[in-house]
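#lab-general

N.A. 3:47 PM
ok so I finally got the sequence cleaned up, no stray characters, all 472 residues accounted for. can someone with queue access submit it? mine expired

B.Y. 3:52 PM
send it over

N.A. 3:53 PM
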Amino acid sequence: MLSKLSLRLRIFLFFCLLGLGALTAVGTALWFGYARAAQTGAANGFTLAAILAAFLILALTVSVWLLFDENVAKPIERLAADMRTRAHAGVAGDLDTSTARYLGDLAPAASAVARQLNDSTLGTAQAVAEETARLSTEKARLTALLTEIPVATILVNPDGQIVLYDGQAAEILAQLGVPRLNADITEYFDPQALDAAVKTLGRTGHDTSVTAHSHDGTQSFDTKLKPMEGGGYLMVIDSQTLDIAPDAARPLVYDFDLLDQRRGGAEMDFLDRPLRELCFSVFDTETTGLLPHKDDVVQLGAVRVLNGRIVDGETINQLVDPGRPIPPASSKVHKVTDAMVRGQPDIRTVAKRFHDFSRDAVIVAHNAPFDMAFLHRQAKATGVVWDHPILDTVLLSAVLFGASERHTLDAVCARLNVTIPSALRHTALGDAQATADVLVKMLPMLEARGLTTFGAVLEETRRHGRLLEDLN
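B.Y. 4:20 PM
back already:
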């Protein structure tokens, strides 16, 4: 049981035990002394002396604990967290050992280990960066090539989940919903004809043509299904007759890990699902003020994280018309003005889109109760239910770095070497992107601490719930 408590709490309990033991000793001596002094008539003076001694012992115990907490427990906790950022979150640079000056050789030794780790990974990081740049160039060429071909391409895994879609497919999917990797293809197309074609494809092993219909029956698409080795199929839609501009405005979006991912995890209790199998919808809002019960959203930004990576090309960056003037003090912070939101959709429309964007995902935000309060207030008018599981990066930071640290978005980003361009700070998408970057670095750190399932992480964050209450 004690092993589950933090180092600082265990040390605090140790000093509590020390103080309680001292007080018990004084109390016992007082009892015996009082019994003896009562016989001689000097009980009052003896009692006063014993009480004074008890208070002095208690004060001494508290003073020593405060010194120990500030100079030993906190530095050890901070040093351990900093080493985890180097080991699991890819944070570079020397450790700050100034706060651990009373720990003897521990801080310099930890700094030496971190420096050695940085040096040994530098070459690997450079090679990875070069390979990433090469793959990005090839991806850009492939995207441009696919855009010139008048077909939309969607790759679907054996469980019917979208693994890849190109820019033209994104335009089609956007007409039918919100384009998302890992989404079921039947969210966009009527399953009756599509399922029949997939069965024919599986039976014959040859290309199969089908007319795919939207759910409302107003749109039809001439489609060919091509079988893929290992299961799944390539869905090729003739986009020549559709009103789609071939300008490569959207990148090729894909995650080939989804080819091997199966739905077995979806049937598991959500609390038991591994963090790596979860999809996260990370968002932020800018508002007319700081009171969710009366203020309104003026901008919403969101980013999706899948398989521990940010999905390039799947974002929301939407201005919102609050239906009221934006106070100048608020515009000074987020730079959103009345002129910018004029003619933009209202929160009901934007919230419905974000709800679709977050389907089957864990919603993540920095100080989530604040942002979610605006959405909950409009839930009835929007016609959606916000019953998603939620994680808060404020609480994740407390779990990883200790409750005594600062947990503002700027402080957490600085701790994890996440840079928010000044022009994007206090914009919905800029802050959502930074929060997503933070989350991606936190996931391996949580796993390294043995918090590998959503339930384990949720239980640990609840220990720090008071932080959000104070923050709000």
